[in-house]
Amino acid sequence: MLKDIRTNPFYRPLWRRIVIVASTVIWLALEGWRGDGMWTPIAAALCGFSVWAFLVTYPKPPAQD
Fold first, then answer.
1. Structure confidence by residue, pLDDT tens digits, 16-53
2. What gap in Å lies between CA 35 and CA 19, rounded to an integer?
3. Selection from 45, 55, 58 nearest residue 21 by Cα
4. Longest dimension (CA), the chain
């Protein structure tokens, strides 16, 4: 699955990846605020994965000279 994220051209623009991460952070904040015992860990896992996959380990584009 991670290979598909790294090679899919849909995720190449940085702004799309930031929007995806921001939406999972907002979802996690809402679930934490509501205190939902089931959805908070699910949202936290998805938020952690999106940060890791889209910002931390996403391959950097080659430098343009």
1. 999 999 999 999 999 999 987 899 999 999 999 999 99
2. 24
3. 55
4. 51
